[in-house]
Automatic annotation (TrEMBL):
Transmembrane segments: none annotated. Keywords: DNA-binding, Elongation factor, Protein biosynthesis, Transcription, Transcription regulation. Belongs to the GreA/GreB family. Residues 84-157 form the Transcription elongation factor GreA/GreB C-terminal domain. HAMAP family: GreA_GreB. It comes from Rhodoferax saidenbachensis. The keyword rRNA processing does not apply. SUPFAM superfamilies: FKBP-like (SSF54534), GreA transcript cleavage protein, N-terminal domain (SSF46557). The gene is greA. InterPro entries: GreA/GreB_C_sf, TF_GreA/GreB_CS, Tscrpt_elong_fac_GreA, Tscrpt_elong_fac_GreA/B, Tscrpt_elong_fac_GreA/B_C, Tscrpt_elong_fac_GreA/B_fam, Tscrpt_elong_fac_GreA/B_N, Tscrpt_elong_fac_GreA/B_N_sf. Necessary for efficient RNA polymerase transcription elongation past template-encoded arresting sites. The arresting sites in DNA have the property of trapping a certain fraction of elongating RNA polymerases that pass through, resulting in locked ternary complexes. Cleavage of the nascent transcript by cleavage factors such as GreA or GreB allows the resumption of elongation from the new 3'terminus. GreA releases sequences of 2 to 3 nucleotides. Pfam families: GreA_GreB, GreA_GreB_N. GO terms for molecular function: translation elongation factor activity. This is Transcription elongation factor GreA.
């Protein structure tokens, strides 16, 4: 099985979700199923069916998160020494060469990506254009509206 890169923060978020699923969600749904069973006829018991569906979802998500964590290659950006190059986990400050607008992105794994928080997926077009570049380089990104050029203002390993 191939390893999946994930930042230390992303791994901690997945571990917290797994803990909640196992210690809160799973016991709750087991209790809901037993209460629904106590109501008698299961053939027309909507509460029982809903609880069984929820249990299926929870057990599936537990397996999914455990699989991701077992295949995870946890990378702590603070421990990186990439010599100023953009690598997985790096935080990059960019300046749009057309408008002068500045943005800051951290390159993260698929499960952590959230553009509103400045977290971009390693396989996104912008991350692929940035990987391997250094401060002062220009990265050309194939955006839906055409090519956009960004100057790399700074690279941080936070």
């Amino acid at each position: 099985m191939a390893t999946i890169p994930i930042t230390k923060r992303g791994a901690e978020i997945l571990k917290a979700e797994l803990h909640k699923l196992k210690t809160v969600e799973r016991p709750w749904v087991i209790n809901a199923i037993s209460e629904a069973r106590a109501q008698g006829d299961l053939s027309e018991n909507a509460e029982y069916e809903a609880a069984k569906d929820r249990q299926g979802f929870i057990e599936g998500r537990i397996q999914e998160v455990e699989g991701k964590l077992s295949a995870a290659q946890i990378i702590d950006p603070a421990e990186l020494d990439a010599g100023g190059r953009v690598v997985f986990g790096a935080t990059v400050e960019l300046e749009d060469e057309d408008t002068g607008d500045r943005v800051k992105y951290q390159i993260v794994g698929e499960d952590e990506a959230d553009l509103k928080l400045g977290l971009v997926n390693i396989s996104s077009p912008i991350a692929r254009a940035l990987i391997g570049k250094e401060e002062g380089d220009t990265a050309v990104v194939q955006a839906p509206g055409g090519e956009k050029a960004y100057e790399i203002v700074a690279v941080h390993y936070l």
